[in-house]
Amino acid sequence: MAPPAEGANGAVSAQDLKLAEVSQKYTAEAAKRFRPEGLGQFIRLKEVGSERLRALAEDPWVDHAALNAKEPIKDGSKYKFIVLGAGYGGLLYAVRLIESGLATGPDDILMIDSAGGFGGTWWWNRYPGLHCDIESYCYMPLLEETGYIPKSKYAPGPELLEHADRIATHWKLHDKALFRSSVKTIRWDDASRLWNLELTEGRGPGEQSRELKLQARYVLLASGILTNPQVPKVPGLETFAGSIFHTARWNYQVTGGSPNDEALTGLEGKRVGIIGTGATAIQVVPKLAKYAKELYVFQRTPSGVWWRGQRPTDPEEWKTKIARKKGWQRERMLNLDSYLTDGAEEGQENMVADGWTEMPAFSAVIGSPRHGIVEPTPEKIAEHLGRLYKLDFPHAEEVRARTDSIVKDPETAAKLKAWYPTWCKRPTFSDEYLQAFNLPNVHLVDTDGKGVDSANSSGLVVAGKEYPLDILVLSTGYVTPSIGGGSPAVRTGVEIYGRGGKSLDDKWQTQGASTLHGVCSSGFPNLFFTPLSQSSQASNNAFTLDVGTEHVTHIIEKAEARVGGDALVEVTSEAEEAWALEIMQHASWFASVMGCTPGYITSEGEALQRSADPMEMAKKARGSNLSQGMAAFLKLLQEYRAEGSLKGFEIASRA
Predict the structure, then answer these.
(1) What is the pLDDT of residues 12-46, one digit of tens each?
(2) pTM of the prediction?
(3) Which segments of the protein form a coiled coil according to its record (predicted)?
(4) Cα separation of 365 and 363, whole Å?
């Protein structure tokens, strides 16, 4: 960051001196956690060598009998649209295609998902204490269209899962989905001008899986960002003799209770360990603490924990202040986003008024409309970082002070403090987590950034000390969506081959991110994906999905109308290169991650590694986003659509 600024008389303010001291602390704490293997220190749960641990990735919620009783999808079937994913992103694609009139026939849409039902992350995650950390009125898609009123300001997991099914029911999507299925390859056929998909449909224990080949005119990727649970490569983990499971596949047979009943009576009299102190653990720990005889919380990096303020939805407030006019949900999404991007106007109503709206420095990773493009010079970048650190400092200090005010033991409180800028990890919100460490049965095992050393049949070992356990909970997160440089193929876990057999992932690794507006790539006609690189992101992922699916549907709708249906839609290489050059101008804004502790946002430190190769640096810059934030990106897309020519696309009839 920039050095402390001098005042008019040459003096440095006390606040600037304190900020310089804190930034040095940030640097020291980040260095403790850096590992040269980066993402290699973790492995996807479904790829672990141990059969026992691999089994933890299986779907514990699926009703195989009910799905097997349905009429099976026929091998060789052809669809207009195949959507990969049946979470909120996939549902938004399907709804927009139906509402636009693009999908009206019985074979127009097929949604494919590896889960046993609709919901995406809300299908898989059913751990006790689960809530969305974004206000439900902003997060839950299509509230206005379905007329549903969330029960509380922050919806719990079961309600979010029910809402996915509500959307599917409202738009009659239950017969347009293939569950328990993993797509292996998606290959463009130049002769038929169709996408060929090869996939495996699971049928459950004792049943033979089915290998299917399907065809589609359009393929839409909506695989989500929290889809592949991971575990750290802890030596001996598979030898632990007690019960073990990942939070993404909670085992209520071990803990007692259910997704709708948080009475975890199976933990009574048990020594429970949980590895991880991220956003999931913040919600889980208080529930474990209530029932476990002893709870050991193994921490590599603490989370910054801010206030939550959960409360029931007030019917009168809903009617008069929230759902007060047509278009209210998009307006509310934008209002929340304006506070996170430091873009709120003076005197503007704060509709959401929660902890998120008190951290404008989160704009470091999602952009801001206030400061323009940061020039890629050392001086301008240092000035930019200094401004961000100053913007964040008061809030970060308040978060640390809150820890001191709640946790009674000073030594424990010190270890629970987050020594990194707010934007470096997903902020967390709880009115229960810090309080749990005041209970006599809850023990923080801080690893000083090193992580757990090893495991054995009895428990875990940290710094030479063994912690005997009966039950081990892995709250170790997910593979970062930026893996593979953010390649849509790697993120989806599918091999994708376009014109001439060209691999989408090879294109990404060779050129870097290559899209127009973050949703399509040249050489891959009629293939679209939800935006990640070369677009814009919001803390509210449902907002990102809403904007992306709206844009993709518009492109397809206008292209189909132009040729009278059955269109070929492909972005030109010139258009995507022009867009890449635009994106690269914004890359310096995101230099803010360089001061971060290794974690999810930095791909476990890989994003922090500087390369001497100019081509590699250029590829990283191509993977950036617009630096003015989601509202500016949305405006850009709206202006593009209003112009009407679909500039940058080649559109032809498939016939």
Answers:
(1) 788 888 998 999 999 999 999 998 888 889 998 98
(2) 0.95
(3) none
(4) 5
